Amino acid sequence: MGRAPCCDKANVKRGPWSPEEDSKLKEYINKHGTGGNWIALPQKAGLKRCGKSCRLRWLNYLRPNIKHGEFSEEEDRIICSLYVNIGSRWSIIAAQLPGRTDNDIKNYWNTKLKKKLISGFLPPNSSSSINNQRKQQQAPFPSSSSSSMYMDQYYGTGLVDPISLPSTEYYASTTTTTNSVPFYYNQVGESIIFSPSSMQQNYQMFVGSEAATSCSSSDNGSSIKQEEIGYHHQGSYNNIAFNSDHHHEFLVMPTSSFNNNNNSIVNYDGGDNNVISQWSTEKSTSSSGYYYDLEDIKQLISVSSVDEIKGEEEDKSMYNYYYY
DNA sequence: AAGGAGTCCAACCGCAACAAC
DNA sequence: TGTTGTTGCGGTTGGACTCCT
User: Fold this and answer.
1) Is A55 near strand C, with its CB below 7 A from some atom of it?
2) Are residues A25 and A78 in the same domain?
3) A52/B13 CA-to-C1' distance in Å
4) Which of A24, A92, A77 is nearest to A54 (CA)?
5) Per the database record, which ranges form the Myb-like domain (predicted)?
6) What's the pLDDT at A306?
7) Is strand C within 7 Å of residue A34 (CB)?
8) Is there contact between A105 and strand C, defined as CB under 7 Å from any strand atom?
9) pLDDT tens, A188-199?
């Protein structure tokens, strides 16, 4: 036996809301509030609508301070970052964007942002200047031709839709550790995803992300549980996040440009503090941020479990993300 | 100008979580 | 503790609109 319907479908109006219905609903809620009972509300408000429909109309369209229209680049970046991080948890993503509704963001992602992101994936051998620029950005990492094996691994992550699979897989193996760890990386918009192919345990790591930090500070409803975040640098937006919901990947985001002078990728958080961090071949810190050492990261991804990573807290002050 | 294809987005649906009893 | 009602969420739909030929 199924659940009884929330309303008598035969006697409720469906489809688009008329201005009269909108003003009735608005007026009622402004006067009386929702009363904590959406099911009873339409009757009280004199509406021939299902309570769920009223709730949706109010939350997505009528309530005050709803922001409609164009999304800013900053909003784009936050959505992309969080999507790569937590997937399609639209309500959580919406919570990071005041005035935006989950429905809005979901529609925006499905109709525009995903395509925008896909168009950001450019083949490495293209002759366009943008492609050349991206090739340069990939310079610090040993590269080789992509192979279907790694393509399969990438497909297997489940992090992005197969359709958005870029044609720029890169493969490198560590030379400084006894455990040689093949991995490849990819660029999603302004983010870079590193995908160790030999991981036994699923985890995901974020470095230098205000969005991830914001997310980590709120454990309500987020799939990224506090313990999965790992350690993040207090008072700084440079952080590390593990997400066992995702697969075999950690993420550095967002990346703005490649710095030819010191062979590094400049990674900024874009948040209020505008903290600058860099992925670099040099391990050091500076007033402008952190330099993530590539070899250390290679070692980091060779660990076999989140517990191992979380187990070691030494040297947290300087390299708070190196726990293995 | 017509109509077919593609895009956008408000609204619906079903399910899971939660709350109240 | 189990049952029932409600809320919240994410996926999907379908109609309106725009673009293209």
Assistant:
1) yes
2) no
3) 11
4) A24
5) 9-62, 63-113
6) 30
7) yes
8) no
9) 333 333 333 322
